[in-house]
Amino acid sequence: MNKSRLEAFSDGVLAIIITIMVLELKTPHGTSLRTLIPLIPVFMSYVLSFIYVGIYWNNHHHMMQLVKKVNGSVLWANLHLLFWLSLFPFATAWMGENHYETWPVVMYGGVMLMASIAYYILVRTLIKLHGQESDVAKAYGKDVKGKISTGIYVFAILSSFISSWIGIFCYILVAAIWFIPDTRVEKTIANE
Amino acid sequence: MNKSRLEAFSDGVLAIIITIMVLELKTPHGTSLRTLIPLIPVFMSYVLSFIYVGIYWNNHHHMMQLVKKVNGSVLWANLHLLFWLSLFPFATAWMGENHYETWPVVMYGGVMLMASIAYYILVRTLIKLHGQESDVAKAYGKDVKGKISTGIYVFAILSSFISSWIGIFCYILVAAIWFIPDTRVEKTIANE
Amino acid sequence: MNKSRLEAFSDGVLAIIITIMVLELKTPHGTSLRTLIPLIPVFMSYVLSFIYVGIYWNNHHHMMQLVKKVNGSVLWANLHLLFWLSLFPFATAWMGENHYETWPVVMYGGVMLMASIAYYILVRTLIKLHGQESDVAKAYGKDVKGKISTGIYVFAILSSFISSWIGIFCYILVAAIWFIPDTRVEKTIANE
Amino acid sequence: MNKSRLEAFSDGVLAIIITIMVLELKTPHGTSLRTLIPLIPVFMSYVLSFIYVGIYWNNHHHMMQLVKKVNGSVLWANLHLLFWLSLFPFATAWMGENHYETWPVVMYGGVMLMASIAYYILVRTLIKLHGQESDVAKAYGKDVKGKISTGIYVFAILSSFISSWIGIFCYILVAAIWFIPDTRVEKTIANE
């Protein structure tokens, strides 16, 4: 089975998720600059989630370069990842409309955490299919970045009960970690 | 005529269907955990429908591996399937917002039933085009799984008038049957 | 310039148009079968427009089989077609929610008419690029079906002022004419 | 890394942006022709933004013809462009619903300006990757059109405080400049 439809379907879902989130930026009723002020937290949440979906798309794109084949398990592991990503618009809207209160921030972190676990499962499923000597296994074998992110998410969720701003700070931190390009794939390709 | 645009268009429609369903998860107005409680049945319906669309995409993807060519009839049989799948968001929302009452559950089953019949028609149209000796015919000749599913849908619709929970149970059962990977295609490919 | 991105972009837009229309089927507030009755005209409009978008996608798919190259003019002629098709959801919703009253039916016909003219312009632009001896020119040289459709739309719009049901009948008639597969392309391919 | 997924993802996002904008054309409640009058400024804004997204897609399509490879920086520069384009529906709706008052027109210009800067950054990132002797560098080296557009946007934003119609005129002017096909790419291809 070839991977092109899995890529096309994932691209489609991610493109829609990223664009649906912008619908939360509801047209304000006035025309003064002041009517935009209540939209600022909604907008900031949108920016954060846009970057997160961008990171997932970017990483998905990088990883798929090393993938030679897919099977039924990979298709489902990928759908599982898309499921959690599809909850980003909901989590983003709830957080943005409520000025970063505790539970919405916790929920946002929960969706992030589940997405990162789903990504981990997808990586493991791909390594299982390709074998321990494959490029995927070599590039993602240790996955330090992924493990650190997951740890930060757990910390963010717990510390949000003290102050939701610690949670927000953690989410920005993880985004920053991943924004730095993932050199593992490029190294693996270069080493061949 | 080649099959790539049929795949791309189907991927697009399925990606949008799966993502539109999540829009039913309306942002709650409060920020306490309790405000999420009314969303639970909506969320459960979303999960069920997500899995169903995932199954259809998965099966479509598997089947298209064996397809060598398409014609006008196949394009229309595929559009017919997409039509019934496009009603999933409506059926899902009606069922989820009404705590699984009788008619919404019956309607959900009706859409499922029509989609399964549309899939059956698509399979027959493909077999007619490729001939009885083709890979598609060999893999889908008997289609026991498809027939059982259709039977369960009919049973689910009828028994929902006694209790809608029997219907719900049947829908979960069919999802479970299909979740187990469709080994027919992989066997056919392996036998070559 | 190759045609694959034009196909991909058109597939994307058509997939979204076809799926957005279903959002007009708003979830009813009750759970009885009777609450679905007001949705019947909305549903019938959806079915009609789904078939129309299906026909356009089908014809676009057929025509693109004969296209060897594209240029800037073709890209814009294609975008012009997509523009009018993008008004289908609006025209469909207005007609469906108003029980086929005069002006909504006229507007629906107007959008149909403009889309058919846009398709005609796209065909001419493609023929100009490929030359009079090309496959596109041979297959679409006379375009009897296209001219008849355009004529019926004009008649439908005018006669809707007498009774909007004449208009509706005409729209169904044109759909029926096009539903019969377009054998011109298949003949042209077969003749080679 | 190959460019096909970047193209597919961009096509997806642009297709959704262009189609989401039409959702602002809300179904009017009456059935007379008069009920459409309040929609005219919304419709005109839609036409303008449709043309703008069309221009961006067209230019993106042209430019990608000359691109041989992509890297992480290009993926992010492209996402950055898509981010600003994703704000088109919001800016379009705000402007269209408020009869072209000052701040909405300024905001529209601001989004346009940011998108043009993002496009410029994408071009530079691609030139950096391909080298000064590459086709991309030759075709986009001076980028007079891009610089003029950016200048007009700045002028439009400032002059909108005198009269928002100067701003609108400028936006139409830039659209007209770009509507004329971008011959640079075709020349570069022809020269090879």
List keywords for this structure.
0% strand, mainly alpha, 192 residues, homotetramer
Please give a structural write-up.
Four copies of one chain form a homotetramer. Chain A has one domain (4-190). Chain A has helices at 4-20, 39-66, 72-86, 88-97, 102-130, 135-140, 144-159, 164-179, 183-191. The first copy, chain A, has 192 residues and is an all-alpha fold. The relative contact order of chain A is 0.13. Chain A contains nine helices and no strands. Chain A binds chain B through residues 1, 5-6, 8-9, 12-13, 15-17, 20, 24, 71-73, 75-76, 79, 82-83, 86-87, 89-90, 93-94, 97-98, 101-104, 107, and chain B through 7-8, 11-12, 14-16, 18-19, 22-23, 25, 27-28, 31-33, 36, 47, 50, 54, 57-58, 61-62, 64-65, 179, 181-182, 186, 189. Chains A, B, C, D: Belongs to the TMEM175 family. Chains A, B, C, D: One of its GO terms (cellular component) is membrane. Chains A, B, C, D: The chain crosses the membrane at residues 12-29, 35-55, 75-96, 102-122, 152-180. Chains A, B, C, D: It is found in: Membrane. Chains A, B, C, D: It catalyses: K(+)(in) = K(+)(out).
